[in-house]
Design a protein that fits this description.
Blueprint (H helix, E strand, L loop, with lengths): L3 E4 L2 E4 H23 L8 H24 L1
Antiparallel strand pairs: 1-2
Helix pairs in contact: 1-2
Length: 69
Amino acid sequence: MRYQIDLFGVIAPSLLLWLVVAYGLFALLRAGLERTGFYRAIWHRALFDLCVFVCLLGGVVYLSLEFLS
């Protein structure tokens, strides 16, 4: 896995790319959870959202190691 990505001459850590991908997935998932009314059963929504985002980020990084290495 490459640890740095060259974006038009700007060196960025690869984690930045995975954060953007995970945030996009999280935005789609959050919209779906709001539409289904799932958040009514959650006690602390912000903490739940943080945990889901961290799990998505871990999954994206894991899959990038599996498929891009």
